[in-house]
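Ticket reopened. Same input as before:
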Amino acid sequence: MKKTLIYIADDEVNICNIIKSFLVKEGYEVETFHDGQSILEAFEHRAADMLIIDIMMPMVDGYSVCAAVRKQSSVPIIIVSAKDTEPDKIAGLTLGSDDYMTKPFSPMELVARVKSIFRRIELDKSSSHRTSTIQVADVVLDAETKQAWHGNLEIPLTSMEFSLLLYLINNKDRPVSRGELLDKIWGFENEVETRATDDVVKRLRKKLGDFGAQLKIETVWGFGFKLANKN
Amino acid sequence: MKKTLIYIADDEVNICNIIKSFLVKEGYEVETFHDGQSILEAFEHRAADMLIIDIMMPMVDGYSVCAAVRKQSSVPIIIVSAKDTEPDKIAGLTLGSDDYMTKPFSPMELVARVKSIFRRIELDKSSSHRTSTIQVADVVLDAETKQAWHGNLEIPLTSMEFSLLLYLINNKDRPVSRGELLDKIWGFENEVETRATDDVVKRLRKKLGDFGAQLKIETVWGFGFKLANKN
DNA sequence: CTATTTTGCCTCACTTTTGCCTCATTTTTA
DNA sequence: TAAAAATGAGGCAAAAGTGAGGCAAAATAG
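Engineering reply: fixed in the latest deploy. New output:
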């Protein structure tokens, strides 16, 4: 497991070191910088997982760093500043930062906020895969019960057919190669010369057609298949 | 477009109303509650997109609400509290909230933080299904899906045509010899006497022309081909 | 164990892609 | 200017890929 990497930029060396020591204690990998220019260059060379940036820095200020990074990355950013007026905070938050803390601050609170942001990212990542039913066009699949529905009518699918259709639905509009299907659904590791995929697709098409589903499996010539809405 | 729904729970009715008015002004749909019990029931009945919760409330306190909601939902939560000690903040953030603001606070700052959290969620959403596309002039190639686009219209390319066009685009403005193409795309090592390259180029030109793409494959006499913008 | 369903393979007809051929046209060279 | 070399366009057919029906092995149910 690779360590989570955090960059800190503050022209006060002491502050950098204090923050760094707390974050390292939590298991993060930390690099410190003391002006806007150098953290930008470092980020370009190796992207970090989070940036903690002071506003007032020589060369390039924190706002500019924030804006520059946001142009090409969605990395979370915490702004740290001695400026504690409302307009300052709003400007920082609006510019693209995820949090704004005013100096002096508690390092423990900073750590808690860092964790909170990473937790938010994880929550969003996992919640998108947690739904047990998924709907595309007029077809509903229930991953738990392995049932497919067209309106109130159940479409009787075998387990292979269900798995394949679920995989295609999860990759809607993206062409999926036969090799990928064999790998992900059959579990073959190497390229096996088989047209088993074509057979399942053939039977799926038949059943979807019989039920008049507004959903079709298109052929991507010389490659594989793609799920699309019927037009 | 459905409005984003935010629930607020605070036993001070005035605070609720102030926050609500600011958020409504920003276009959010807002419901207010005055104890922990009722916001939990409401959430169970209809999930909101964000919760703003006071710590000190009758019946069920904010911490408990936060913990209860987190058990089954990843909805973002902002805790608002008069308690401004470090342990309070850390407890709130650790328990699962996304932000912790101490009273009295600026409503404008709250709005900025609300927006910041939604932006974070959007950033994570969009970055998770980023595509590896290359664009030249008005033509977009997606190497992953092997598709070429002219605006919203897909240009149907065979796999040979796609590979050749991709190679030319990656070497835009540089003349590429037939031998190089045979080597890199067909995989022939020696100089094979074939005009297969010319055939694929011929068909590519036809299709690009049919779609009115601002992109053309120029002939470099006695050598090969070169991709260029149409002028 | 038997009956039924599921699944993979085979064959064959059919479709799409790809390379080659010919010939006209363009560019270079003598 | 004429001959030679290279390229472009259209047609064609081999090669490659796919779909449908039938069949039997394998898995599942009774």
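Chain B has two domains: 5-120, 131-229. The longest helix of chain B spans residues 107-128. Please confirm and we'll close it.
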